């Protein structure tokens, strides 16, 4: 799986960090999300799906291969 983050769409809610802290973080300035792991392991799949679901800006996309 591959995670895509559309940073310009991010509204800095931090929900992705709460749902998947091993995959996302936030910038100190402005709080925009940062993608830590573009291709996280299968053990993080549920967390990433949760982050996609709770993102209020729909800025996260999961591409499953």
The helicity comes to 10-25%
Specify Rg, calculated over alpha carbons: 10 Å
What share of residues are in beta strands?
15-25%
Q: Compute the average pLDDT.
A: 96
Residue windows where pLDDT falls under 50 for at least 5 positions: none
Note the overall shape: globular
Largest sheet: 2 strands, antiparallel
Q: Give the topology string: H per helix, E per strand.
A: EHEEHE
Distance between the termini: 6 Å
Question: How many E-type strands?
Answer: 4
Decide which structural class fits the backbone.
alpha+beta
Total helix count?
2
Give the neighbour order of strands across the main sheet. Answer: 1-4
Question: What does the model show?
Answer:
This protein is α+β, with helices and mostly antiparallel strands and 65 residues long. The chain is built from two helices and four strands. The strands form two sheets. It has a two-stranded antiparallel ribbon. A two-stranded antiparallel sheet has the order 2-3. A hairpin with a 6-residue loop joins β2 (24-26) and β3. The termini are close together. The mean pLDDT is 96.
Q: Nutshell version of this structure?
A:
The protein is of the alpha+beta class. 23% of the residues lie in helices and 22% in strands.
């Amino acid at each position: 799986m591959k995670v895509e983050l559309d940073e310009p769409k991010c509204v800095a809610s931090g929900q992705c960090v709460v749902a998947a802290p091993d995959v996302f973080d936030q910038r100190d300035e402005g709080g925009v999300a940062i993608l830590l792991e573009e291709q996280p392991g299968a053990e993080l799949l549920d967390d990433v799906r949760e982050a996609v679901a709770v993102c209020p800006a729909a800025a996260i996309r999961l591409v499953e291969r």
